[in-house]
Amino acid sequence: MDIHIIGAGSVGMLVASFLAEFNDNVRLIVRRESQANQLLQHGLVRKNLDGTLLKSNVQVAMDLKGLPKHSFVIIAVKYGELNDVYPILRTIHEDIPLLFLQNGLAHLEEAIQLPQKTIAFGSCQFGAERENDYTIVHRGQGVLKIAIERGVKTPFHLFLQSTNKQFQVTFEKSAENMLFEKALLNCFINPLTAILRVKNGMLIENPHTHTMLKNLYNELMSAFPEKKDQFPFEEVEKLCRKTANNTSSMLGDILQNRQTEIETIVGAVIKKAAKRGENLPILNTLYHLILAIESGVKM
Ligand SMILES: NC(=O)C1=CN([C@@H]2O[C@H](COP(=O)(O)OP(=O)(O)OC[C@H]3O[C@@H](n4cnc5c(N)ncnc54)[C@H](OP(=O)(O)O)[C@@H]3O)[C@@H](O)[C@H]2O)C=CC1
Ligand SMILES: CC(C)(CO)C(=O)C(=O)O
């Protein structure tokens, strides 16, 4: 099956590189000609967790024209960039399965309006960082969780062909639940790292950031007590440890003056809590701090 990945950023390049280990027909869809040229010239280079390098030859294109019916499309752009991608997806065959890899919750309701018969959502538990337009650094070990919201599971069996322990896929029952759980994890890590401009590991290394992380955790768990068993505080600490050297995607956005995914992650969790009458004062403060930084306030 031909695999087309829209967005050759951190997640898109990492996933493409792992898929290219067992599939010769992986194609990255990019929006800049300069990136297409770099990828064609150098190949796609992955820096593994153990420091080794792996180069793969992936195909590169700048649009989805002439997509065969037996294709598989993965969408790896940021939430805010999906509005440019939805119109393109509406033009491709409705038998082509789609897999969305965004953090946050807001895209779930939007994506299921598309005409495709099979639509799934993924939650990346790994860390990835783009070093340049053709080099991707694997920053933290973790599985790719997939939940099929509509349609059939068969096309997703392609992921089970991976024999690389660093790229394993698990299937989840509910996309909403899966995305919400990941959004909670992102609420713990992303705003704090973005405001303090620290890598994920610092949140557990410094006693003050550790206290803030714990207070935030207690606040969220009192609003969503049903999640406590699944997320003991140790799990949050473990994720910080596993992705210690990662620049969280929110920090990455702030550093590059790009729009963050604050609304689809933190905004969506605040709304969910409000629906059950819960205020989240700490998370609300972090939310407004990120919006203030985004609107130009210098820290
Ligand atoms: N990075 C990480 O460790 C993790 C990220 N995630 C989530 O994964 C999602 C993707 O994040 P990430 O990979 O970090 O983001 P990046 O910004 O690194 O990558 C997004 C890519 O999409 C490209 N793009 C945007 N619009 C289009 C378009 N219309 N056509 C083709 N390409 C397009 C961008 O191009 P250009 O380069 O030209 O701007 C960019 O290369 C986010 O929701 C993020 O929260 C989840 C877990 C971990
Ligand atoms: C898992 C984590 C926190 C890795 O940094 C992430 O999802 C992100 O940066 O958005």
Description:
The protein is α/β, with parallel strands linked by helices and 299 residues long. It has helices spanning 10-19, 33-42, 82-89, 106-111, 175-196, 202-205, 207-223, 233-242, 249-255, 262-275, 281-294; strands at 2-6, 26-29, 44-47, 53-56, 59-61, 71-75, 98-100, 119-124, 127-132, 135-140, 144-150, 169-172. The strands form 2 sheets. Strands 5-2-1-6-7-8-11-12 form an 8-stranded mixed β-sheet. Helix 5 (175-196) packs across helix 10 (262-275) and helix 5 crosses helix 11. It is globular and about 50 Å long. The structure holds NADPH dihydro-nicotinamide-adenine-dinucleotide phosphate and ketopantoate (KPL). NADPH dihydro-nicotinamide-adenine-dinucleotide phosphate is lined by residues 6-12, 29-32, 76-79, 81, 84-85, 101-103, 124, 127-128, 130, 246, 249, 261.
Globular, elongated, flat, extended or rod-shaped: what is the shape? globular
Question: By helix and strand content, what is the structural category?
Answer: alpha/beta
CATH class annotation of the largest domain: Alpha Beta
In the sheet with the most strands, the strands line up as: 5-2-1-6-7-8-11-12
Helix content: 40-55%
Terminal residue distance: 48 Å
Query: If you consult CATH, what is the topology of the largest domain?
Result: Rossmann fold
Assess the beta-strand content as a share of residues.
15-25%
Number of strands: 12
Q: What is the CATH-assigned architecture of the largest domain?
A: 3-Layer(aba) Sandwich
CATH superfamily of the largest domain: NAD(P)-binding Rossmann-like Domain
Number of helices: 11
The biggest beta sheet is recorded as: 8 strands, mixed
Extract low-pLDDT stretches: none
What small molecules does this complex bind?
Answer: NADPH dihydro-nicotinamide-adenine-dinucleotide phosphate, ketopantoate
